[in-house]
Amino acid sequence: MNIGTGSSERQVYIGGEFVAENEARISIFDHVVLYGDAVYDTACAWGGKVFKLDEHVDRLFESAHALKIEVPLDKAGVKAVVLEVMRRNKLEDAYIKIIVTRGVGRMPLLSPYNCKPNLIAFAIPYLSLIDSGVQQEGIRAGISSMRRIPSECLDSKIKCCNYLNHIMMRMEANEAGLDEAIELDIDGYVAEAPGYNVFIAKQGLLYTPGENILVGITRQTVMELAAAEGLETVVGRLTAFDLYNADEVFLTSTAGGIFAVREVDGRAVGPGKPGPITQTLSQKYMELLESGVQSTPVYS
Ligand SMILES: Cc1ncc(COP(=O)(O)O)c(C=O)c1O
After folding, report:
1. Nearest in space to 86 (alpha carbons), one of 55, 144, 125, 56
2. Which of 235, 229, 234, 226 is nearest to 258 (CA)?
């Protein structure tokens, strides 16, 4: 799907107002254009309800606070914008992005002071990041030759608009014929994947890394769903060996839910197809989205 349609039909929020997508303008001097200096969050809506909206808005504010970017609206205002952008585009199942750029400052260009932050929000019909066929069989992943930027350099908890490290790793994987990269941290332990958290299942337990990751909202949801199924999650360090020898490996993200990984670095994971734990958790996750229990209704 081409998301940048230049549509006059689609409404987006930018600079304090709703405008047609093809009228949305941002200054070339905005720090997001010059330096990738901005934060964002991605939420999803299912059946006209936005899943865990409070959690996404809280994380957006925490990222902004960490980078000393002042969000132009309060949390209630940002939530109202998200719901309104859904309504204006008459969406039910949607992918929603909220961005806060540092804005345009005075000279010298690299100065982060006296900038006017810009809140941007858009919603588009829900899209799957991976073809449904590939998703059903499980994806093929490879460990990247690059390392995730360590938190000592840029805190991984900040969801910022500088994703070059992740993008380079995804390109490397895709150009090697793989669906996705697995990112190791600077010490060689599994961190995450470009846009996903990583889980393994082994002998009836789940394991997921706890450091050098974006603290994913889907990761948290999966741990809660697993606990409800009597499945404990151990948060700690994992190595490539643990991935190769797991019973199951899967990735989690808001934009996509749960993806089974069937192969890592040319080694089949378990029997080389989505396993029972991944399938159960995927099903429970979809049921939770559809139930609307932890969601905010758009249309009431
Ligand atoms: C680097 C990174 N890790 C993990 C995730 C998954 O987070 P969530 O489940 O909140 O979407 C994302 C989501 O965009 C991400 O960008």
Report:
1. 125
2. 226
Domain ranges for the chain, please list them: 11-125, 132-290
Q: Is the CB of 182 under 6 A from ligand 1?
A: no
Q: Residue 10 has which token pair?
A: 């689609």
**What is the atom index within ligand 1 of the atom nearest the CA of 166?**
1
> What's the gap in Å between 107 CA and the centre of ligand 1?
34
Cβ atoms 137, 172 nearer than 8 A? no
First-last CA distance in the chain: 30
CATH for the stretch 132-290: 3.20.10.10
| CB 42 near ligand 1, within 6 Å | yes
Mutate to test the pocket of ligand 1, among 149, 162, 196 (most ligand atoms within 8 A of CB): 196
Q: List, for residues 96-153, the tens digit of each pLDDT value.
A: 999 999 999 987 778 899 999 999 999 999 977 777 777 789 999 999 999 999 999 9
**What is the architecture of the domain spanning 11-125?**
2-Layer Sandwich (3.30)
> For residue 208, what are the contacts with CB-CB under 8 A and spacing of at least 6?
197, 198, 199, 200, 219, 223, 233, 234, 235, 238
Phi-psi bin for 262: left (phi > 0), alpha (psi -120 to 50), beta? alpha
pTM: 0.96
Q: In this predicted model, what pLDDT tens digit does every residue of 169-206 receive, in sequence order?
A: 999 999 999 999 999 999 999 999 999 999 999 999 99
